[in-house]
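Appendix B. One record, verbatim.
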Amino acid sequence: MIDAHCHLDDERFARDLDAVIARAQEAGVTAILTAGVDVASSRAAVALAERYDAVYAVVGIHPHYAAAYDDNARAEIRALAAHRKVVGIGEIGLDFHYTDRAPRAMQERGLGAQLDLAEELGKSVVIHDRDAHAALRAILQSRRGKPRGILHCFSGDLAMAREAIALGYLISFAGNVTFKNAPRLQAIAAALPLDYIVIETDAPYLSPLRGRRNEPANVRHVATKIAELKRLEPATVAQTTTDNLERLFGFPAGK
């Protein structure tokens, strides 16, 4: 399996990260993608990718920090993206849930600029979308499927997922697909072709083990739930979602 999205630089991993990585590998996780949300965390993501063979990075400016996406930030993200273990630009996107983080117009400009950067560099993208479905759909549709990428921790509807797949995006399900109060999300996972699904933890958030810190080893619970919903073997979900990510990012897991 590959954990398609987490935040290993989070302070909740500061004391036991070696053990976290070891547990993930023992659980069958062959690669972990850790995501930056600003310049500092993007630097940290690259440093973690250098430290651990199984860790890869994506670098970018999250919509909460859209105000910080200036020429200096762009230059730094561009430089970090050249690292051999940086496989994409992310976590970028739109978040209209929190109205006090960054104005919507500023978020849209930051997203557009980073999509341009990804296309220039030939990188895929990892996109955050919270309560911004219509705006994001319009932006992605206007770009005719360039660049390709992942809609991380998917929260849209089935029509949006199918539109995104047609544009070259993969749909990523996180630990919340295992929650008892997530029948709509589970129905979407059941309906989509497995060849367009990937799995993630978004650790340390959205733990499938409620009340506990999430970590990459728990991506196996996401694989198991997807398998249950689609009436497949967990091993089939694990292998196919791994293959999907390897095709998107052009890297062999664990290499």
